[in-house]
Design a protein that fits this description.
Number of helices: 3
Strand content: 35-45%
Number of strands: 50
Distance between the termini: 42 Å
Structural class: mainly beta
Helix content: 10-25%
Length: 554
């Protein structure tokens, strides 16, 4: 499929070279690129605004303050309880001791708020949830400061008398908050660790979840504001899905230290964090080792802050629709495709990614990363609605496939971008099925020469496409210097390369520049136009860019 894509791109490039009225076509391409960039930016801003709104509305004062009046609390020694302990009214209930086979059952009024305080409590239910909230307005599960608490279930559940189908160690039909500064260990031997059929909020607590299937599930939302959360899951780590309401199914990470490991012998689609609508990361330290996507959203994925270390068997970050990175530090140490979405915008942050296929891929969302689909069905068809826009940030890509790839437009307006691209001739360090323009920022993209593609002539910032007569060894530093000997741009690719694309502010037509490979002077290049091409490569120039100008050797 990828070779077929490239075949159509070659045909289209040839058509632009020989067609009459080429300049008019280029002008039209410039207009389309500008419109696409503007539309993508507006969509990105909308996604960030939605994430900010979620953050502002996700935590109540009582979520954040787990304190209570001990004089008004009901104290329960679980060692004196046989079977289930049932809560029927609003209040604070403090549990200590061990319940060997039973549960805490909440069957209160629909407007009641119930706080369950665990104070060195251990609860095991062999045939159902350890904590089961059937009816209430909201349930708070608080781990008392300085205590360690254990909740676990069995491998088989008994029939439920309330008409529900509980399937988790903590199962709540109402809003659920898990807080406190103590420690809570949750073992889901049946299926899930924690399931909330409404909103789930986690703050402050040291929470450890080990589940056969998904770790933490919130039908409407999952919000983590602080604390230490560790999830080991055979299914997804943290997930929110609501098939009844397209505005719900949101996951919000505002802070905390989060560690997620997903997958197992029978897992086919085990994602780290998955959201139906919005997945927003505004802060925190997040480490994910996922069998499938590390981060996945069926609609929008935004990163505005935080430190992310991601390892994935499929995509490091995937959104079926919009993906925005405006801040934070993102490291993708292992992935099939690093970052994938229909529309990708990067305006800030530090990104380092390694991929066995494309580094960035602006393509259709229905690849293997879909909400339950198999992996490996990437779409390579040209689609003008797809876009990759970079306006800021520092990006380093090590990709076996294309480094930056768009099935539509690729637009660079700022930032610092380094690409160690493919060594095979079927891919390029840069790849666009439509326009590929640059108006700002520093780019050094190194890769094979067979499918090397440079920026369009319609770009407002100058660039060089240089193909060496032979492949350069991995670890060879590329340096471009001006006539005064000042370094314009420099980068050390991690893999063998033969072609390099260089663009930086200040490049000027008619000026001469020296290109070094390591300490050796390779060439002196005089820029003759918007794009200066030296040497022979498979695809110099973007789709619609027309014939590129040759440079003068000094």
């Amino acid at each position: 499929m990828k070779h077929l894509k490239r075949f159509f791109m070659i045909l289209a490039s040839a058509a632009f070279v020989f067609a009459a009225g080429c300049q008019n076509a280029q002008a039209a391409s410039t207009t389309v690129a500008a419109e696409t960039s503007g539309a993508t930016t507006a969509t990105a801003m909308s996604a960030v605004s939605t994430a900010q709104t979620l953050s502002a509305n996700s935590y109540t004062d009582r979520d954040l303050d787990a304190s209570y009046d001990a004089s008004e609390a009901t104290l329960v020694d679980l060692s004196t309880v046989s079977g289930d302990y049932t809560i029927t009214s609003e209040g604070v209930y403090v549990f200590s001791g061990t319940l060997a086979n039973g549960s805490i059952l909440v069957n209160a009024g629909e407007n009641d708020k119930v706080q369950i305080v665990l104070s060195n409590a251990s609860i095991t239910n062999s045939d159902g949830p350890a904590i089961y909230a059937v009816t209430a307005d909201k349930v708070f599960i608080t781990a008392e400061a300085g205590t360690v608490n254990e909740l676990s279930d069995g491998t088989v559940y008994a029939a439920d008398s309330f008409g529900n189908s509980p399937d988790a160690t903590i199962f709540s039909k109402c809003d659920l908050t898990i807080n406190g500064t103590g420690k809570l260990n949750v073992t889901g031997s049946y299926k899930f660790g924690i399931v909330g059929k409404d909103d789930v909020v986690i703050v402050n607590i040291a929470l450890n979840v080990n589940a056969q299937s998904d770790g933490i599930v919130g039908k409407n939302s999952v919000s983590i504001g602080s604390g230490t959360v560790s999830v080991t899951a055979g299914g997804d780590g943290i997930v929110s899905e609501n098939s009844d309401d397209a505005t719900l199914g949101n996951v919000l990470i505002d802070g905390g230290t989060i560690s997620i490991i997903t997958g197992g012998a029978n897992a086919s689609s085990s994602k780290g964090i998955k959201a139906q609508t919005s997945l927003a990361i505004n802060g925190g330290s997040i480490t994910i080792d996922a069998e499938d996507d590390a981060l996945h959203s069926a609609s929008s994925l935004t990163v505005t802050g935080g430190t992310l270390v991601l390892s994935s068997g499929d995509d490091g970050m995937h959104s079926d629709d919009v993906l925005v990175i405006s801040g934070g530090e993102v490291t993708i140490s292992q992935s099939y495709e690093g970052i994938e979405a229909s529309a990708i915008t990067v305006s800030g942050g530090v990104i380092q990614l390694t991929s066995s296929d494309d580094g960035f891929n602006a393509a259709g969302g229905a690849d293997g990363s879909s909400m339950g689909g198999p992996r490996g069905n990437d779409s390579f068809a040209a689609d003008s609605s797809k876009s990759l826009v970079i306006t800021g940030g520092t990006i380093t890509v090590n990709a076996q496939g294309d480094g930056l790839d768009s099935n539509g437009t690729l637009t660079i307006e700022g930032g610092t971008i380094y690409v160690s691209g493919p060594t095979n001739s079927g891919n390029g360090a840069l790849d666009s099925a439509s326009t590929m323009t640059i108006s700002g920022g520093v780019v050094i993209a190194a890769g094979s020469a067979g499918m090397a593609q440079g920026f369009d002539q319609t770009s407002s910032q100058l660039s060089i496409s240089y193909t060496f007569t032979s492949a350069q060894a991995a670890g060879t530093t590329i340096t471009l210097k001006d006539a005064s000997g000042n370094t314009v741009a420099s980068y050390t690719p991690e893999k063998t390369f033969q072609n390099v694309i260089i663009s930086a502010p200040g490049l000027s037509t008619g000026q001469s520049y020296t290109l070094y490979a390591g300490s050796s002077l390779v060439d002196t290049i005089t820029l003759t136009g918007t794009v200066t091409t030296i040497g022979s490569s498979g695809m110099n120039g973007g789709f619609g860019g027309g014939q590129k100008s040759g440079g003068r050797h000094g």
